[in-house]
Design goal:
The protein has about 475 residues and is of the alpha/beta class. It has helices spanning about 5-25, 40-55, 140-150, 155-165, 180-185, 205-210, 225-235, 255-270, 280-285, 300-315, 320-325, 330-355, 380-385, 415-420, 425-435, 455-465, and strands at about 30-35, 60-65, 80, 100-105, 120-125, 190-195, 240, 245, 285-290, 360, 365-370, 395-405, 405-415, 440-445, 445-450. It binds manganese (II) ion. The site of manganese (II) ion has 6 residues, from loops.
Length: about 475
Amino acid sequence: MNKKFPPESILKPLDRPMQKARELVENSEDIKILTHIDCDGISAGAILSSTLDRLEIDHEIEFISLDMIPEKKAENELTILSDLGSGQSLDHFATSNDKILILDHHPPLRKMGSGWKGEFIEINPNYFGMDGSYHVSGGGMSYLLAKKFSFQDLSWIAVLSAVGDMQNSLTGKLEGLNQPILEDSELMGLVKSFNDLSIYGRQTRPIYVALSYFGDVKLPITNNRNECLFLLKKLRIPSKDGRNPRTLSDLTQDEKMRLFSELVRMLTLEVPRKYAKYVPRLVSGDCYEFLKEERYSPLRDAGEFSTAVNACSRHERADIAFKVLKGNRKMALKDMEHLAKEHRSYLARQMDWAQEENRIKSLQNLQYFNGNGIKSNVIGTLAGMLLSYGDWKKPMIAFTEIGDEKEGLKVSLRCSRLLAYDGIHFGNLIKGVANRVGGTGGGHSVACGAYIPTKNKENFLKIFNQTLNGLL
Ligand SMILES: [Mn+2]
C-alpha cells in the first residue's frame, strides 16, 4: 500500500477531541443516538451501538432524515448525533444542561468550539483542514471514537460507510483518514483491498450481466447482454464454469487484464478527446472485500453491501440493515435479501414504465423526466439507470412528488463519472439552482438532489440549463 503520511500524523489532530468524547460517553448512563438514514449513517449507528453494548451503557437509536431535526429534542442524558448535526441549527434542540456529542463530516455551520454551556462536543474533520467528502465518513468518525475504546474490530463497518458515502468516487481509492481506518481493518484480517476492474456486481452478478450495466459511457455492451457474451468470447473469457455463471471475482488476473485493455480501447474510441485521459479511472479502482462474509454473498463486496443497506433505508427498514451490521446473519439477513429483491423488481417495473413513449426529454445541456408517482426515495436510483438509455454526455434529472402529504418536488440528478472527473460538481451546482427557485439542494458530484416548489419546475430546468453553458 502506498502511504503518503504515517497514519499517526493524520489521526493526531482528532486525538484530544476523541479522548474528550470518550470521557463524555463513559460518564453517561442513558444515551440516545440520532443518526442519518443512509448507508453511512446506519453504519455509524451500528458502530456506536456496538460500542455502547460492549460498555454496557443503556442506549436507544433512531434513524432520521435531515428534515426531521427541527422536530427533535434532547431527551436523554447524552445525545449523540452521527453523520448529521454539523450542517443544522441545533439551537432549538438542547437546553444549557444537555450533553451533546456530534460526530459528523458534513460542512459545519458553527465555528469550532462554539458550544453552549453544558457539555457540547462537536467533532468534524473540516475543523482540521480535512475534506469531509473524501477523507472520512460519518461512520469513520464514529469508528475513531470506538477506537478510543480499542474496538478495532469495528473498523470494517467504517470501510463500508466510506464506500457507501462514495468517498472513493473521485480517485477510485480511499484516502485521508479513511486510509488508516482501512489499515486497521486489514490488520484485523477483516478486509482485503486491491486494485480491480471497477464493474459493479463483483460477487453476485454473472460477468456478462455486470458488464451490461456499464453506463458511464454508452457502449455497444451497455444494456445488451448478447453483446457482452460476444465480447467475452472474443477475449477468450469463459462466461461459465461448468454450469455456473462466472462473476468478476472468478476471473483470473490475465482475463481481467484482457478485459481492462478492451474496455479502455472501446471507451477511448467513444469519448470526446477531453475525456480520454480519464478513461482508465472509469474501469479500474480499489475494491474492498469483507473476508468474514461468504463468497458470492451480497455482503462480501463493499459496493454491493452498501447497495443492500441503501435498499433497506429506501424502503424505510433501516432497522434491518442495522441488525445485519451488528452481526445478525439469520433473520435480518433473510429480510435484507428479500427487500433487495423487492427493490430490484420495483425498479424494473418503473424502468419499463419510464422507457415507454420517450419519457426522457432533452434540453441543450441536460435531460430530464417526470417520474409522477414514483417513490421519492428511489427516484435517484432510477435516474442513474435511465442515464444509460439517454445521452451519457448530459446529466439526467428526474422529478417526482415528495409525498407524505408534503408539497413540492423531489429532484434527483445522476451523471457519468466522466463529467465529475472533468471538474463539474453537480452537488454544488444543484444547490445554487435550487436556492434560486426557493428550494434546497446538495450532494455528491455525480449523485445529488434537491427539493423545490412544484410551480418552479420549469424555471429550475431553465436556470440549470443556462448554468451548464460552456461547462459540458
Ligand atoms: Mn455521510
